[in-house]
From TrEMBL:
The lineage of its organism: Eukaryota, Viridiplantae, Streptophyta, Embryophyta, Tracheophyta. This is Pectin acetylesterase. It comes from Erythranthe guttata (Yellow monkey flower). The keyword Endoplasmic reticulum does not apply. Residues 1-32 form the signal peptide. Keywords: Cell wall, Cell wall biogenesis/degradation, Hydrolase, Secreted, Signal. InterPro entries: AB_hydrolase_fold, PAE/NOTUM.
């Protein structure tokens, strides 16, 4: 015998069920991120477009739709560099995610690659592409010969051009709006490849580049300047990059110095947006290394700013001052965009909490997402630099409006 439910109660439960289903659907439609399968580059081995270990180049592609169907975003992730045989061997051995496409199946698309209209309103329905970073050269190397002893392949440039070529056949050739972007080593790659990328998509109405935490400075007046120059010089030499660097730079200085954006940016013609902290955590922790005898406890200081001695903190402040002074040399190109905050952070675009959330870093009441959108679509000029705060901010939990 069934249970009798009065009509009014039945209506109530039916309405409740409909609400639950509707809310479930809404949740799916506004997901903050999505897992996107890898696509291995067609004929990658024949093209020579392979990772350090010889595995084929790969990328993750989420197809655009609606008014974003003819707009494309190409994302170049970070992951440092290797500039010597042993460091590249170690990269293959200990960092397979940065040297191979073997065993990689999916990538989580969040923040600037997010499909969520609320958190990524300007780009959520674009064609979004994440190119695997597996060459250790910021997508710039091209050495034809393979080391028979180590099987190391140095083909970053071929990876970049071959993936773009394949994407052209998937609709990129008909794109109206295009953005090249990336973080850290990928942010540097964005700067280095910006004009080159523009030439690969000549039919697009608007092509712009956004570099996140890719403005690595030489800082000749700060500790370890020789070490910073040596690092980039080794990468340029080992990966055969010199031939791809602009002659406007290599005619004036050594090729290794032309890997520093400060020596390139003024000559870039394509609109470029620089997103960075003037207290860049990676550059301070890794690139800025005072002699340990002079600075005992420096490592602990850079891991926890509250433990820094006054002299150590002054070195960090000197980095900021040098960063801002270096930034002045990038030229006054009106197409340039800037968002330079004081967070003790490296990388912003791939984490929603930093890119666009209630607690995201803001300058002049704009989140990074708003600033990039306004600049890209020419809604307003965006040249925001935090010149008021001269102390590294802890922005991990949320920092509100800085200035």
């Amino acid at each position: 015998m069934g249970i009798y439910i009065p009509t009014t109660m039945a209506d109530h439960w039916l309405k409740l069920l409909i609400c639950v289903i509707a809310l479930s659907s809404t949740k799916v439609n506004v997901r903050a991120s999505e897992m996107v399968n890898i696509t291995l580059l067609s004929n990658a081995v024949e093209k020579g477009a392979v990772c350090l270990d010889g595995s084929p180049a790969g990328y993750h592609y989420a197809k655009g739709y609606g008014d974003g169907a003819n707009s494309w975003m190409i994302y170049l992730p970070g992951g440092g560099w290797c500039g010597r045989k042993q460091s590249c061997i170690d990269r293959v051995k200990y960092s397979p995610m940065l040297s191979s496409t073997k065993n990689i199946t999916q990538e989580n698309f969040g923040a600037i690659l997010s499909p969520n209209k609320t958190s990524n309103p300007d780009f959520y329905n674009w064609n979004r592409v994440f190119i695997r970073y597996c060459d250790g050269s910021s997508f710039m190397g091209d050495v034809k010969k393979v080391d028979p002893e180590t099987n190391l392949h140095k083909r970053g440039s071929r990876i970049f051009t071959s993936v773009i070529d394949e994407l052209l056949s998937k609709g990129l050739k008909d794109a109206k709006n295009v953005m090249l972007t990336g973080n850290s080593a990928g942010g540097l790659a964005t700067i280095l490849n910006c004009d080159r990328f523009r030439a690969l998509v000549p039919n697009a109405n608007m092509v712009k580049c956004v570099s996140d935490s890719g403005f690595f400075i030489h800082a000749k007046n700060l500790p370890n300047a020789a070490g910073r120059e040596r690092t980039f010089s080794r990468v340029v030499h080992f990966h055969g990059i010199s031939k791809f660097l602009p002659k406007s730079c290599t005619s004036r200085m050594k090729p290794g110095l032309c890997f520093f954006p400060e020596n390139l940016v003024a000559h870039i013609k394509t609109p470029l947006f620089l997103l960075n902290s003037d207290f860049d955590k990676f550059q301070i922790q890794v690139n800025l290394k005072p002699h340990p005898v002079d600075n005992p406890g420096w490592v602990n200081c850079t891991r926890n700013i509250t433990t820094c001695t006054p002299p150590q903190l002054q070195i960090i402040k000197d980095f900021r001052n040098t960063f801002l002074e270096t930034l002045k040399g990038v030229g006054n190109n009106p197409s340039r965009g800037l968002f330079i905050n004081s967070c003790y952070i490296h990388d912003f675009l791939y984490l929603m909490g930093r890119y666009n959330s209630p607690d995201s870093p803001k300058l002049h009441n704009k989140t990074i997402a708003q600033a990039i959108g306004d600049w890209y679509f020419n809604r307003s000029s965006v040249r925001l630099i935090d010149t008021k705060i001269d102390y590294p901010l802890d922005c991990k939990i949320g920092s509100g409006n800085f200035v």
